[in-house]
TrEMBL record:
CDD domains: NTP-PPase_RS21-C6_like
Source organism (scientific name): Kutzneria albida DSM 43870
InterPro entries per record: dCTP_Pyrophosphatase, DCTPP
Cellular component, GO annotation: cytosol
A Pfam family this chain is assigned to: MazG-like
GO biological process: dCTP catabolic process; DNA protection
Domain of life according to the entry: Bacteria
Protein name: Nucleotide pyrophosphohydrolase
Length: 117
C-alpha cells in the first residue's frame, strides 16, 4: 500500500463509521472539493505576493492555509477513491502527457497553451 491508499482507507473508514457514504457521491465530493479550493483561494485573495511569501512561512496564515490544503487533499482523495481512480497514477500519467504536449525546448519560460506552441 502507498500513502494515498492508506489515506483513502482511513477516509473510507471515517465515512463508514458516520454512515456518510450516502452523501459521498462523485458530484457531492466534487462540489465539496471546489468549495475547499475556494476557501484556500480566499485566504490569499487580497494579499500581495510579498505578503504571501512572508506570512505563509509561519504564523496564523500558515496554519489556515495548511488546514485548507488538507481539506482539498482529503476531498480529492475521497473523490478518487469513490470513483476508483488512483490519484498518484493519474498524476504521473498526466505529467507524461504534459511532457509530450509541452516540450521544454518550446515551452520554457512561456505560458502559452500547448496547442499554440
Amino acid at each position: 500500500m502507498n500513502e494515498f491508499e492508506d489515506l483513502a482507507a482511513r477516509l473510507r473508514a471515517f465515512a463508514a463509521a458516520r454512515d456518510w457514504e450516502q452523501f459521498h457521491t462523485p458530484k457531492n465530493l466534487a462540489m465539496a472539493l471546489a468549495g475547499e479550493a475556494g476557501e484556500l483561494v480566499a485566504e490569499l485573495q487580497w494579499l500581495t505576493e510579498e505578503q504571501i511569501r512572508e506570512q505563509v512561512g509561519g504564523g496564523e496564515l500558515r496554519q489556515r492555509v495548511s488546514d485548507e490544503v488538507a481539506d482539498v487533499l482529503l476531498y480529492l482523495v475521497r473523490f478518487a477513491d469513490v470513483c476508483g481512480i488512483d490519484p498518484l497514477r493519474a498524476a504521473l500519467d498526466k505529467i507524461d502527457r504534459n511532457e509530450e504536449r509541452y516540450p521544454a525546448a518550446l515551452a520554457k519560460g512561456s505560458a502559452t497553451k500547448y496547442d499554440q506552441l
